[in-house]
Amino acid sequence: MTSIDQAPAAATAHSPASGAPLLELDSVACEYKLDGGGRFRAVNGVSLQLGRSEVLGLVGESGCGKSTLAKLICGLEKPADGSITFDGHPVRALGLKKRAKELLGIQMVFQNPYASLNPRRRIRDQLDDALALNPDGTWTVESLLEAVDLPADSAQRYSHSFSGGQRQRIAIARALAAGPKVLVGDEPIASLDAFLQARIARMMRDLAIDSGASMIFISHDLSVVRDIADRVAVMEAGRIVEVGSTEQIWNDPNHPYTQKLLAAIPKVDGKGFIPG
């Protein structure tokens, strides 16, 4: 998070390659009250676009505002300034009301797979709830489980009987069941071991694209983002400081913060990113 008074100048966000954006953020800000008085802006003047059938990686260090931005996109936080538009509809904070039907096309996969599933209900019931949000869809409980490489009899079990990686795959299946146009992954691989991280990230990309959805994949792991994203947005202290194609960000980063993030990636066999 960054102080309102100390926020650096924002970068200009690049537009998707072609066509009208599916999701558009215009000068969005979100602020929180401090215990001792005053306010901090966790997100400060973010403008960003997501194209159709596009995977956008959102990267930055912990505390830079990535998760707050995800919550704003999903209507879980109320913006202090700016606007968010999804498929022509304004995104408003949920409050105590039921989510508007036109906004059900935004679905989120949360970071913690141990907290995102209801431990008192069978997996089938939780997937059926999501399927009911998309009555015209073609998914079934069985086909969803198959899509995330889980056996059909998983539907009769409770979440406590699954590993972290399996629970996250179930969370992905539940998000897909609702027929989203935008899938938001808020650090969805952060709690998984290194062996599973790349696999789950690639699975999310493939399932989103195959189902016709776009995806925002939030992570501090640039190596994984490089593998799955079409474009990358770099966030520092509540602002987007650089946006570009994955190839451009990787091979010709413009902002010093982007260069710093890439330089911090561990080298393999003595080789790694060298800024400039």
TrEMBL record:
UniProt keyword annotation of Phosphoprotein present: no
Acetylation in keyword set: no
Gene3D superfamilies assigned to the protein according to its UniProt record, in alphabetical order: P-loop containing nucleotide triphosphate hydrolases
PROSITE patterns: ABC_TRANSPORTER_1 (PS00211), ABC_TRANSPORTER_2 (PS50893)
Sequence ranges assigned to domain ABC transporter in this UniProt record: 23-262
Cited Pfam families: ABC_tran (PF00005), oligo_HPY (PF08352)
Keywords on record: ATP-binding, Nucleotide-binding, Transport
Family: Belongs to the ABC transporter superfamily.
Name by which UniProt lists this protein: ABC transporter domain-containing protein
Organism: Brevibacterium permense
